[in-house]
Amino acid sequence: MSAKTIVVGNFKGGVGKTKVSVMTSWEYSTVYNKKVLLIDMDPQGNASTMIARSAGIQTIDKTIFDGFKSGDLSSVVMKVTENLDLIPAAVSFKNFSKFLYSEFKEDIDQISYMKKLLEPLKKDYDYIFIDVPPTISDYSDNAMMAADYVLIILQAQELSLEGAETYVSYLQFITDEYNADIQVLGVLPVLLRAGGRVDQITVERAIELFGEDNVFKNVIKHLERLKAWDITGIKNVDHHDKKAHQIFIDVVDEIEEKLAHFEEVGRHE
Questions:
Q1: Is the C-alpha dihedral spanning 249, 220, 7, 138 positive or negative?
Q2: Which of 15, 56, 19 is nearest to 38 (CA)?
Q3: Is beta strand 78-79 parallel, antiparallel or unpaired with respect to 183-190?
Q4: Do residues 147 and 5 lie in contact, with contact meaning Cβ atoms separated by under 8 Å?
Q5: Pairwise CA distance, residues 123 & 138, whole Å
Q6: For the domain with range 4-268, which CATH number is right: 3.40.50.300, 3.40.50.150, 3.40.50.12160, 3.40.50.920?
Q7: ∠ CA 10-14-15 to the nearest 5 degrees?
C-alpha cells in the first residue's frame, strides 16, 4: 500500500480549501473505512482546529514544524480516530522558510524536503490530504513536490477563477523546472449561493477554461450547517448534518472515479 497524496489548493484565500481537505479526509476515513492522513501545512492551523474540535481533542503537543526540525514526521502524527490521523500545524510554522534556507543551500533540496520526510509514511495510508495556505510559497512548493495530485478549489467568483488559473500555471512551472510528478485531479466548484447567477457563470467559465472533464460535476453547496461545524465540530445527528455529509460523500465518489481514470490511463501508457 502506498498512499495517493492529494494537495488541496487555490491561490485565492477563503474559497473553502480547508473545509474540503477536512471533510474529504473525514468521509474517506469514516464512510469508506480508508486509512487517511491529513497534513495541515497552514500556520493558521484551521484544519487542525476543526479536526481537534470534532474529535474532542483538547491539546496539541507537537506540530508539523517539530517534525520538520527533527527530520521525522512520524513523531508528530496524531491519532484522531481509528482510521484518521492528523499532522497539525501551529503559528510557529510561519518560520518554515527561514528554517529551509538555513538548512539547505539548493532550491531543489528546499522544496523537496516534505517529499523526503513523507515517503516513509506513505505505506501506512490509503490517502494523504495536504491543506496549504493560498500563497506561492515554500508551503505550496513542498506540497506540490510531495503530492501525486492537486484538487483545485474554485469558489464561484472571478478572483477565485483567476487564482485557479494562476495555480495551474504555477503547477506547470514547478513541473517543468523541478520535474514534479503531479496531475490535476480536477477543479471542484464551491458555490456562494446555490442556483445563483454568478455561481452558474463562474462554473461555465471554468468549464471553458479547464475543459468539461476536468470540472467536477458535484459541487459544494452553501449550507449553514457547514458553517456551524466550524463552531461545533463535525456532527452527524440530524438530517441537516446528513445532508451536509452527503455533499462530500458525492465528491469523494467522483474523486474515486477520477483516480480510477488516471490509473487506467497510466496502465495503457
A1: negative
A2: 19
A3: unpaired
A4: yes
A5: 25
A6: 3.40.50.300
A7: 55
Specify the 3-state DSSP secondary structure of 132.
coil
Which residue type occupies 173?
Answer: F
The per-residue pLDDT for range 96-145, each reduced to its tens digit, is 999 999 999 999 999 999 999 999 999 999 999 999 999 899 999 999 99
Question: What is the Cα Rg of the chain in Å?
Answer: 18
Domain boundaries, the chain: 4-268
- Cell numbers representing residue 235 in the block: 456532527
Sign of CA dihedral 7, 37, 83, 46: negative
Q: How many CB atoms lie within 10 A of CB 11?
A: 23
In sign, the C-alpha dihedral spanning 30, 32, 35, 37 is: negative
Give the pLDDT confidence of 193-202 residue by residue, as tens digits: 766 788 888 8
Burial of 240 (0-12, 13-18, 19+ CB in 10 A): middle
Residues in the chain: 269
